[in-house]
Protein 1
Amino acid sequence: MDQASSDIVSLVREIVEPLVADKEAVRVTSSFSETGVEHVEIRVAADDAGKVIGRQGRVIKSIRVLARAAACADGGEVEVELVED
């Protein structure tokens, strides 16, 4: 994981942790596709998924916008996905 990748993972984690009740269940991982696009996966407890999604998906959309802006500043691309445990 390079510096830009770890920065995006840290950014996403810092945004998500205050939103959820079970902070221990938060897992943010990163991988790269063959085309060089970074895929960030957020895992939270099933009870907290709604808090991360937000009304009409506004919170997860905002997280995606911030992650894309951070990646773009470093010259990369990122996709963020929420996975319920």
Protein 2
Amino acid sequence: MKREYRFRYMVLEGIRDLFYIWKDEMRNVFKDAGVVIFFFLVPLAYPVLYAFIYNNEVVHEARLVVVDPCDSYLSREFTRRVDATADVRVVRVCTDMAEAKRMVDEKRAYGILSFPEDFSRSLHTGRQATVSLYCDMSSLLFYKAFLLSATEVSLEMGKELRARTSPSSTEEMERIAVDPIPYESVNLFNTQNGFASFLVPAILMLVLQQTLILGIGMLGGTVREKNRFHGLVPINARFKGTLRIVFGKSLAYIVLYAFVSIWVLAIVPRLFSLPQIGDPRVIALFLLPYLFACIFLSMTLSGFMRSRESPMLVFVFTSVILLFMSGVSWPEAAVPPFWKAMSYLFPSTPGIQGFIRINTCGATLNEVSTPYRVLWIQAGVYFIATCLIYRYQIIRGRRLLIKRHRELKRRRMSRLKTKSNDVIHRI
């Protein structure tokens, strides 16, 4: 056969084997109930569950108890204004701290606002008065609601007291004296200053990575359990090339997760009115290396899975750790250098950072060039690692198969020799 025809035959054979492996992997996915749960039910339900839990965004009417031994007009006015804010509701005014602590212990309130006995006298004599705020730190959202409300009321009443104690000749001079440097707070990209708007997009990206790791790891463990030699590559003439195996399997996963990603990253945020100002084309281009990096990482890790249950035992607990190391729920600048370096072993870190900048802040691909490059580098590194693992599995399978054939041949020859000796002995 001529060289060009032989090359063409090899290419066509490789393409046929690639699509055979793709169909075989798709069949394996839909035949395995556990993989269907990880690939479809978890991405379908988890994003909705998380978005639904945090859909209120902020805490309203957080229960606060007040300890007011002063019982003056100024302390009562301070309490009335705090109660009038949207985030806080004063449930009781007590005379001693013991009763207030008891209410917090019983979860009838989540914070205590305490006035000193000389609160009104200190303000009228021109001295500074301190109002103490105690908060149940089991939830930071309560602390945020109490602190912001009390701070706003103290600043507003402070301006009024300053205006009364230091009158000016004109309203303009009085306004300048009371508020010499006016400020305005603008919440960029999260106008409600809500919890879901900054946390849920990170969880959505992490769900894609973790479900791929668990699903592909379960597929790898299943193949090892069913394989006669407990290898990752089935004993099949079609599974004889490293690239066709890797490309065939990854093609199956990328096709499935193209549809899963649309639901997770586009439809769920729209259902719950989360911020979405990014260009869909930019998001799609950014998502491509992220999915490839997650798929090849999952295929690499699946090479070490010995059973179906192994991925759930090894990888499920890492979700919270990876969320913290991504620099979203915990500031990236506060992450120690070791853990920051460790976080870039996983596609979730650059994926979450880049996706939030694009989807929530409207960044372009040039503005997220660093995480975009990191994702392509990760995809390349894990692709090479996947090829090495599957190449090793192919060679190992061939050696074990040859060894098995030799063993069978030796046993056959041994039986033939025994029969011939029996015949000679009879003769």
Protein 3
Amino acid sequence: MVDLWKLQNGSDVRGIAAEGIEGEPINLTSEAVNVIGQAFAKWLANRSQKDISQLKIGVGHDSRITAEKMKAAFFSGLTEAGVTVYDCGLVSTPSMFMTVVFPEFSFDGSVMITASHLPFNRNGLKFFHPEGGLEKSDITEILTLAKALTPSQQPGTGIPCNSLAAYTRSLREKIREGVQAENFSNPLKGLHIVVDAGNGAGGFFVSQVLEPLGADTSGSQFLEPDGMFPNHIPNPENPKAMESIRQAVLENHADLGIIFDTDVDRMSAVLPDGSQVNRDAIIAIMAAILAKDYPGGTIVTDSVTSDRLTKFLEEDLGLRHHRFKRGYKNVINESKRLNAEGTVSPLAIETSGHGALSENYFLDDGAYMAVKLLIAAALAAREGKQMGSFIEKLEKGFDEREFRMKLTGEDFTAYGQKVLSQFEERAKAAGYAVAPNSYEGVRLSFHSQEVQGWLLLRLSLHDPLMPLNMEGVRPGDCEKMMDIVRELLSGFEELEVI
């Protein structure tokens, strides 16, 4: 049996499930998946206080080449545990959560077999129960249970379940109710929407959401599931992927382009003029759409968002911007915490395109975000406007950069914390503006004639790295900030400064 602890990836399980890349042997084996399936059933029975034989668990997957092999192993583990298993087939991650909340299913738990945008040889498991996705501590507990179990030798099967049909029906109803078009059944008639699914699981959005609502989807691309991802990485953060959807929008003269990651929990967009709505811009446009319904609300983002985004959210939209730690579970849990304490926070969103709305179970759902964009696009078109009007006051960024500096010592976490502490002390002594309440790393802002922009130095959670993000306002600003960083980091022998 492989080392199960190496399969934990925060609140998910991930590993290498197929041969094909030199130096990357398989560690997410069928045996490992089998015992994890058994352990999830035991964990869920304990949590729900149900007999394990009463549990109903749904399993779905994206387009990865190892999906069927992993599903068979997971089914075997669940069957060994005595669970009733449902086979949801090729679906999106958010739709698997909906199987535990939609009354027609009311599953006790569900599992999505996916590794998001990672290469073809990777795969993983995402788990849900009726209160949401599992936390890191839950995965640790499941893996602890799994270590004491023996892989089942009997095959397992799942009862066929078309959960995606119920999920897409809810998306169509949301659009119809939101647009309130005169032609109620076809609220997207007259809109030309191009979708790029990156050969992941998101092709359904064209055939089961857009086309039934009357949209023109000609020019949509890479809708066929193909786990080798032959066209581009299915990742809205990938420059090649974004350029691909940008060209599709321009060549087809579309009103909007939408791009999903492999399992459709993330998305970004492209406007008719080819402007890319990703990173800060996807946060800005979602906040602008929500602003009228949540006046003064707090938008929780990850730590690498820009100062110009803060200005747009707070000065132009009248919202509050709350930067927090990177990691989609971190921003979601922080937004939940604020709401529980009485602070209205309608949106938790990362620059990666992970966005979760309070009105949608705080589920990071790329298709639901696309639905919000489509409703806004249809309403704007009714008034003779385009989607760009929502973020026309967002200042344009000039130069964004990210560096990943290596820590060479044995105890890299302790050394990295020492670097951050002294970096902050040196920055204050030099008179630089240090942002208060930095929940992750040290953030500096520059507003002088010599240099304008911001930077964030932080410590990676898992790797011996110190990422450095920066954004300059003018030509040469990033180079000047880099000179400042080198000066502030001088003398740290176990840090390879760029």
